[in-house]
Amino acid sequence: MDDPEVRRTIKRAKKLDPEAIGVLYDQNFAAIYNYFRHRVGDAMLAEDLTSQLFLKMVHALPEFRLGEAPFRSWLFGIARNLVADHFRKEKATAVLFLDEMGDTIGAQRETVLLNTEVEVVVKQAISEITSEQREVVLLRFFADLTHQEIAGLLGKTEASVKMLQKRALESLAKKLGGGVLVDQ
Amino acid sequence: MSINDRLSNATLEECLEAILTGRITVGECLTLRPDLGSEIARRLPEEALARLSDAEPLPAFRESLRKSVMAEATNLRLATTGKRFGFFRVRAVRVALVAAVLTVLLSGIGLASTSSLPNSPLYPVKLAIERARLALEREPKGRARLHVDYAKKRIEEIKALGVKGDRRAVESTVNRAEDELDEAAALAGKLERKESDEIVAEAEDVEREKRKALGEIEGEKPEVEQDKETGPDDKSEGSKREKEGDGIDSDANRPVAPFGGGSLINNPPADEKIETGSSSTGGAASSTSEDKAEEQREEDD
Predict the structure, then answer these.
(1) Same structural domain, A107 and A142
(2) B203: which chain A residues are within 8 Å (Cβ-Cβ)?
(3) What is the ipTM of this complex?
(4) Distance, in angstroms, between A114 CA and closest chain B CA?
(5) Residues in chain A within 8 Å Cβ distance of B185
(6) Are B36 and B71 contained in the same domain?
(7) Do A12 and A69 fall within a single domain?
(8) Chain B residue nearest residue A22, CA to CA
(9) Is the same domain home to A22 and A57?
(10) What's the total number of domains in chain A?
(11) How far is CA B120 from CA B114, B117, B131, B178, B180, in A?
(12) Which of A20, B13, B154, B216 is deepest in the core (most CB within 10 A)?
């Protein structure tokens, strides 16, 4: 649940106080951008969705009910809907994750802290896990939501969310270790 | 010294760093440090994901979108409230409020409502009178004091509701009390140090009173237990993920008291449960809130 400092900011933001909205923006920008970035696999599209999300947030904030759900969880609910709308519009048959290898524009635009080769392996590994596992991993590690919050968003039990995460991490470890870590 | 020489004595962290930055493969690392195999298998995926999640777009995009979002908020606020509440209308509303409050008070309903409880038909009248008094008070200090007073009233109501066993009403009243204290804390940050300290001290008294009342209702001592359970709010990625081990989040098993102790001002634990009225405070909460109030004053200066 949101702590009192965040609650105070949200209360002001609900009254459309630009300063408070700026604080919420700063607190959530990176997580939201990264979620989109790794969900749709394109830097430009991620920027577009991030813009849409924060503008939607401003309009929806007066309706946000403190105490019902943590703010970040609510925000990622909107983010998930935006991604779903995007794929519906694009008539995508499958959710893309992996960056195109030739996505040089995205690579130039971003600061990536991993070695490029390792980054490719990680992205490849994440693209190969199931859609549900991927969603859990993104919400857990990119959005920093708790298992309980993710369970609420995905309509699953907390235990099943933990199991999905565990399997995803095991699969990722195998890929990153090139098979070496399997026997450990 | 080659990287292999260095890695033969390397720590787990150094091995992970070397793998993630592509200086060595997992296989090479395990050849040199076979004892680290299980730890690397556990930590590597999470470390890789954490670093991947730190990727950010150019700051120019971030800044430009920030300005757009704040401008949108300003425009929306002007569109929704500016038209309806111009200066003259605000003044008219104030005059109307004074008249309404006087009428209610003189009619006797207001007096009767002052002792009403949340499940009483007169309770909304009591709250309306309180809001009206707030609307008439312009000074931050006066407003802060009113919020603290209202929080005290909520605590008295909680005690009375506890006797009656109306749990639902207790929870909603706890939320109201915490909202009043939040508002008082926010206003205290805008005051001079001495005034701020007075408000903070009074609010902390009310907070203690709230915990005591809830403890009596629950027949337990939530303050001590809560402190032991939650501990400091450690936000560091390493320690957070460290605690979760193989992906099973420790917070899932953490017991949640129906009503906890509450940090009133500024520095609560991350897992405060608003809907159940729980919150917590540790021994350091008081000094931390003073620090925050101090920071706020410095910012204001």
Answers:
(1) no
(2) none
(3) 0.76
(4) 6
(5) 4, 8
(6) no
(7) yes
(8) B70
(9) yes
(10) 2
(11) 11, 5, 18, 21, 20
(12) B154
Q: Which of B41, B178, B271 lies at the smallest CB-CB distance from A177?
A: B41
User: Which of the residues in chain B have pLDDT under 70?
Assistant: 1-9, 53-57, 81-113, 220-301
| Closest CA of chain A from B112, distance in Å | 31
SS (H, E, C) chain B: CCHHHHHCCCCHHHHHHHHHCCCCCHHHHHHHCHHHHHHHHHHHHHHHHHHHCCCECCHHHHHHHHHHHHHHHHHHHHHHHHCCCCHHHHHHHHHHHHHHHHHHHHHCHHHHHCCCCCCCCCHHHHHHHHHHHHHHCCCHHHHHHHHHHHHHHHHHHHHHHHHHCCHHHHHHHHHHHHHHHHHHHHHHCCCCHHHHHHHHHHHHHHHHHHHHHHHHHHCCCHHHHHHHHHCCCCCCHHHHHHHHCCCCCHHHHCCCCCCCCCCCCCCCCCCCCCCCCCCCCCCCHHHHHHHHHHHHHHHHC
Q: Which pLDDT band, with edges at 50, 70 and 90, does A76 fall under?
A: very high
Domain boundary among A87, A111, A135: A111
Residues B48 and B65 in one domain: no
Kindly state whether residue B212 falls inside one of the protein's structural domains. no
Task: Kindly report the CATH number assigned to the domain that includes residue A179.
Answer: 1.10.10.10
> Nearest C-alpha of chain B: how many angstroms from A71?
12
pLDDT of residue B222: 45
Q: Which chain A residues are Cβ-neighbours of B273 within 8 angstroms?
A: 1
Q: Is residue B173 part of a domain?
A: no
* A18 in the same domain as A92: yes
pLDDT digits (tens, 9 = 90+) for B229-277: 444 444 344 444 444 444 434 343 333 333 333 333 333 333 333 333 3
* Integer Cα distance of B213 and B143 in angstroms: 25
